[in-house]
Queue: 4 jobs
Job 1
Amino acid sequence: MRVAILISGGGSNMTALADSMTGDHPARPVLVLSNRPDAGGLARADARGIPTAAVDHRPYKGDRAAFEAALHDTLCAAQPDLICLAGFMRVLTEGFVARWQGRMINIHPSLLPKYRGLDTHARALEAGDTEAGCTVHEVTPALDDGPILGQARVPVRAGDTPDSLAARVLEAEHRLYPAVLRRLAEGDRKRLDLPQR
């Protein structure tokens, strides 16, 4: 399975995914693509020998169709079987998602369907939740609403701040995303639920 990974920042989830695709793993990273040419994750991918590219969204000045056409063309050149969104901070249009329907997954830092969108950790703390976590799901036109492929849970601790909870959830993301990717690469689409850690 050929995997393209889309990022916008440092690429910690990209690194976890890429580092998992070794040995007998049935998938290989064929492209790390960012909407930010200065994204730190591009250097991390390059250091691992993974081809990289950037399609900067800023010159498109809000023309999402033109930006996504360039993104699509860059992806097509790499011929991925699966696209993993890993901290890609652009909301994709329905048209783009439709082109890659069933072949694009995302990791989200909450236990969906709770807390779609941003500020998930602050919202979990404000609600008094006793656990938080992350979700890998198929990407559909509705934001953070596709079929759930896996979840990992972490405890919310007394004295947690959004930052401390985010750090704990990020560790869970680094366990969950590679595990779900491997299952998908092996042809298994059953939901994976990792125990609380």
Job 2
Amino acid sequence: NGYEVIEPKFKFYNFSDKTRFAPLYYAGEEELTSDKEFAKEVEEDSEEYVALKILGFLKAEV
């Protein structure tokens, strides 16, 4: 039908215990990065999405 379904994607972040100001972005399994460009895009309702929400990460829509 010519329509494309766009599923929302998010980048998750948290703050360091040391700085409390600089966000640390989720970059994949067991990886954090301070560079938003390298943050992993996570699809809504995926296992990763649910796990990051449970762990208290904040989300930003891409």
Job 3
Amino acid sequence: ARFGHSFSRVAALTVTASSDETNGGTTDQPDTTGGDLYLSLDDVRRHSVDARLNLRDPGGRAVATVGAALEGEDENSQSQGSFGGYPFTSAFAAYRASRAGYAQLLWTGVPRLTMVAGARVDDNQQFGAFGTYRAGANYRASTGTRLRASVGNAFSEPTFYENFSTGYVTGNPSLRPEHAASWEAAVEQDILDRRLTLGVTLFSQQFRDLIDYTGGTTACGFSYCNVARARASGIEYQATAAVSPALSASFGFTHLDTRVLTAGFDTTSGGLYHLGQPLIRRPATSWNAAVASRLGGRGTLDARFTYVGSRADRDFRSYPALDVTLPSYLRVDLGGTLTLAAWPAAGDAVFTLHVENLTNAAYQSVFNFRSPGRTILTGIRFTM
């Protein structure tokens, strides 16, 4: 639910409330006779309220936002299975609540320059208080050059299972969130009377307090601990072109380099964080291309090509898990719209078509889990 009210031309309040519940679980049958088994039932509920006040400069040069948020989530989980020939059961019910306050300033006081800065403090009853921030600037030169830079940080909460599980794996209620700090800098240039735009972006991320499981007698033995550090950095190249008034195209290429800086606990082939090794499921190269066209004013047609290079993963069917490489793949998606009729009283009826994985390519984003094959989605959209 969402409520909004404008007190004046310079002040507006927005309140958003949401609630959702998910009932599900996992059925992981043995791959071989007498192999490992895992079954679970999970009930997860989340409730949140967010209130924010926007204050606008009468001169239109700045917008300040202040707000507060409350969130509660609880989970009831039951699981059973066997690992290495030893049966186990687990059951827990847990609740976490958090509150947050935040502020942001968007400033356009200098021609062609936009700047933004914001900060937020989250206070979670399980993890304590954590502060995050972000800042960025965008400059548009009269020559068609655009410069962009940003910096910020974020955190990711442990799962309920990592915090509260019982049985074969014991949760660690003292876990801290995983943290990430990042920056990026980009330049774009319009050429050929703005029909072609070329751009390049440099980016870097630093991860710390990454969570890993240890089966040894360390300070948090037979549980999860914050231990590993890693980085991810790279470069992106982009190009967009207006080929004609009815046809446009784009292309992007990314080179990514990831490395583990502080190792995790598991030194076997199944470990997720091996010193100096890349992070799993992160391709070193990837690219995408798209073509979009308008069909005589009554429809559109677009095609997107996505290439993902080979990347490291783990085969968890054995213990310890085996180091494997996921092969590269190319996926093609196709979409289009067609206006069927124009009704003066009711608006237009538009037929929509979207085909995902047009060539029915067989690929895996996670080892041993097949991604969907060709999927066709159709519908009719009415504008009233």
Job 4
Amino acid sequence: MTRVGRRLTPAEREEILARATSGDSITAIGVRYGVTRQAIRGLLRRNGVPPRRAGTLTDAQRSEVVRRFLGGASLSQIAADFGVTAPSVRGLVLRRGIQIRSVSEGLRHDAFDSFEPDTCYWIGFLFADGCVSYRPGHIPQISVGLAERDRDHLVALRSYLGCDNSISRTSPTHGSCQFSVRSHRLADRLVELGRYKQAIDERLVASRDFWRGVVDGDGSLGIYRRPAPSTRSFAQFRVVGRRHVLDAFVAFLENEGITGLSVRPHRSIFTVGTTCGPAERIAALLYAGAATALARKAETAARMIGRQREGA
């Protein structure tokens, strides 16, 4: 992560100068030490060290580029790490006789056609955190961004969709990453099921997997300590979103025997929240025995479920 204003130690400055002298790119050095390219460039200029000319790689770096590509890294990611362009990396790989298959090859355009548990989950997740965009003359795009700490979840989504599209770092400063695919069928299906409509398909509304996906995208679960002098803790659940989505969620909970919740305004959107026993029951309803979930929220849900069982 790039940290604005971070001060380098004298030892780090010496290491940076040595790396630049040996041919490392400004981009790669900045990522390694968590500072901006401008800071690295200024340090080199003050010490009379010329930055590596863009687009040039040493023999060792060319070999490393090929090794990383064969290991599964994307052209764009390799290019960013070595401070060159993606076309130059593509050319190098092709000159080595390595076949480059389309990143969208294998993409399951029918991935959202069924209402299987995994399908409902990913639809719910994209309803919450995803964006479907249409541009004249272009194939519709589905994109989703997460914090870098949740990168593995985008890897899981990519695996579910069956493609090799890259997961890019969109903001080193804020530690975020993004994944996107292009497909008429996938985009149209999400819209058809209610992504931007005022009504969600009833088969999704009745699915706990769909709602787990929504909560993984726009919800929070936690166990917090009560104010002193109490030494006890309490569970909390909350999800935000558009009014009609949360109305459907409350109806789903009521159908499952969890009553008393209401949709309330929250800044420009709405929220549903609760604590203690009801929060634990929601965690159990959505996450108990679930095969697909955001890891850190599933871990918190497991602790909440454990509290519920201890209190039963």
